[in-house]
DNA sequence: ATGAAAGCGCTAACAT
DNA sequence: ATGTTAGCGCTTTCAT
């Protein structure tokens, strides 16, 4: 902390400029002097002050990423991918947690949102999208959004095709012979929830079926349990298949079904979404839709790099394809229950 | 990015010093001038350059936290708590992912590990503890470790009593009437794994029982499945209760048991550890050991604040108590199976 | 209450 | 190949 470039200069007998050159691998330093400097650096245990560097260079070498929670396999996958790709580009990653407590005002205190803290920002799945965009554009910080919810801006965005995911999930169920199929969605505030639902509806219509029920649930929660429990308690006929908007919801659905004595997938097939890490380990192993997290991270970094370098980026809206993972929680339709 | 304190000074007709005073809420500015400055700031959309501030102040106002993965409920809980408590102290949080690819050398490129990037660091559950400690001490960056693995240093540390957790989990099983009890542990490289195992062993001994089996598994993986599958395939007698070192392992154990036609907890009771978010939603709902994540984060921040302020901190080793969460995956012993 | 001047640690011209 | 000089944007004495 105390030792600075002057100390190194003094100790090595060189000027601070030469020290700076060594620090930045300038080719114009005599090897002998270079060594002197290197020795002094090691001896003094010196490392350059990055605030000073940032100040003079006008850039930080760090990319920020905002996230809302740390307990999600999809987020984790995206972040790991971002990390790798950033490293390839010589940037480091700083993650910031952004709380999204309902209608609480946008948290401008977010430490990342300073031009002198980061060179660019990746916004991962926020609900306060408009506020972020406004702030970031005002500050002229390059950024890219992942899992954007509004469709009508020209902001660089990477989404996974949720319509397709919902459609494929439903087609899977239909292909298995199911006819009475229900959907429990995420909050409609999320574009992804609305799109998955649309994919569901369209697949049903296409097959000449009408949805057994569609209920708005909540992503990442276990609302599936209470919803199914109510459904059962009311004496409604149980659909033979259910498309849950994510794996947490699916888990809740399955539990309530099992508690009521139904067999999954024997009596009812359930498909989730996201391929959470537990999906492959619960009993029955969850059939689900996997998102291409690696690609998402890769493209996010790519776009951001282009933005930072001022390249003209046209295809600023990217849509990737999800993938069906067929496991054990869905099976052929075997006749009606109840 | 371009507008600086000079621009504000010019526009407001004040000197940069006065602007600075306003920025820092100095009481010695005439209200009228204060307004002028505030207006100029707003009009120019100015926000102070934090690199310059850091440079001159010698401190950053940010606390760093290193973490290895983002898909863990315990980590998430700790981080959320850290975040809250940091905010109370006027600090912001920067998270950095530290990969721990086996024996890969310590990743010194971690962007947090600069005195001029953070004022202090929280190291969350790393395996490369010694490397971190050496680096951080060399750089004289205040830090605190959570879930430390070595017992023999004087580093500020917050752990949850894993011995007690293992002990309580096992006592729970014993109290339920079980006698043939097995344990699948985490990697012994983790102190927490060794301690949970010891708690298990001691509780068994105390009850005059001998462990049905103890197998080293791997935290956070679903090794429980293959381990139980092998056990069953070999025609061994199934223990009537199993203590899995974490919830992921427990999930694997339960699945293999169910696949083999056993009932949980009817035939075999299974207890996990950590109370992952899915634990309350799988079927059967997992009995587990919950860690006091809120307290962990709170104390971590507290200790770090003391360290930064140079206060003498004696009780630099803190040990918190875990809590048994009795749900559905464990039940009274009902006689032998097989 | 306000301002002038010095300097935080570094790099980028511009000499030499 | 190396050094001199001038800032990057801000805060902090020290005057006034």
Automatic annotation (TrEMBL), chains A, B:
Source organism: Paenibacillus anaericanus
Protein name: LacI family transcriptional regulator
Pfam families, sorted: LacI, Peripla_BP_3
Example of a GO MF term: transcription cis-regulatory region binding
KW Nucleotide-binding (keyword) present: no
Keyword Transcription: yes
Keywords: DNA-binding, Transcription, Transcription regulation
Cross-referenced SMART domains: HTH_LACI
Annotated ranges, domain HTH lacI-type: 3-57
């Amino acid at each position: 902390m105390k030792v600075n470039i002057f100390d190194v200069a003094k100790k090595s007998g060189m000027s601070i400029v030469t020290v700076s050159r060594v620090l930045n691998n300038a080719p114009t330093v005599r090897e002998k002097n270079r060594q002197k400097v290197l020795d002094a650096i090691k001896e003094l245990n010196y490392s350059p002050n990055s605030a000073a560097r940032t100040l003079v260079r006008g850039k930080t070498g760090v990319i920020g990423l905002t996230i809302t929670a740390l307990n999600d396999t999809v987020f984790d996958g995206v972040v790991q991918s971002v990390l790798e790709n950033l490293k390839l580009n010589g940037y480091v990653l700083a993650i910031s947690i952004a709380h999204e407590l309902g209608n609480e005002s946008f948290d401008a205190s977010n430490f990342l949102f300073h031009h002198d803290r980061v060179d660019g920002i990746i916004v991962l799945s926020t609900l306060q999208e408009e506020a972020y965009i406004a702030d970031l554009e005002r500050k002229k910080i390059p950024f890219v959004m992942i899992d954007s919810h509004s469709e009508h801006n020209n902001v660089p965005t990477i989404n996974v095709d949720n319509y397709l995911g919902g459609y494929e999930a439903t087609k899977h169920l239909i292909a298995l012979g199911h006819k009475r199929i229900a959907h429990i969605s995420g909050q409609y505030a999320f574009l992804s929830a609305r799109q998955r639902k649309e994919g569901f509806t369209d697949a049903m219509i296409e097959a000449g079926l009408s949805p057994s029920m569609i209920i708005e649930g909540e992503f990442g929660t276990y609302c599936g349990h209470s919803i199914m429990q109510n459904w059962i308690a009311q004496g409604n006929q149980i659909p033979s298949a259910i498309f849950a908007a994510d794996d947490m919801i699916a888990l809740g659905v399955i539990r309530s079904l099992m508690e009521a004595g139904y067999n999954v997938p024997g009596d009812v097939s359930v498909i989730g979404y996201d391929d959470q890490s537990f999906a492959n380990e619960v009993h029955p192993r969850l059939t689900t839709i996997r998102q291409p997290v690696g690609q998402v991270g890769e493209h996010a970094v790519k776009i951001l790099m282009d933005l930072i370098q001022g390249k003209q980026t046209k295809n600023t809206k990217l849509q990737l394809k999800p993938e069906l993972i067929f496991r054990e929680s869905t099976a052929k339709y075997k006749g009606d229950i109840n």
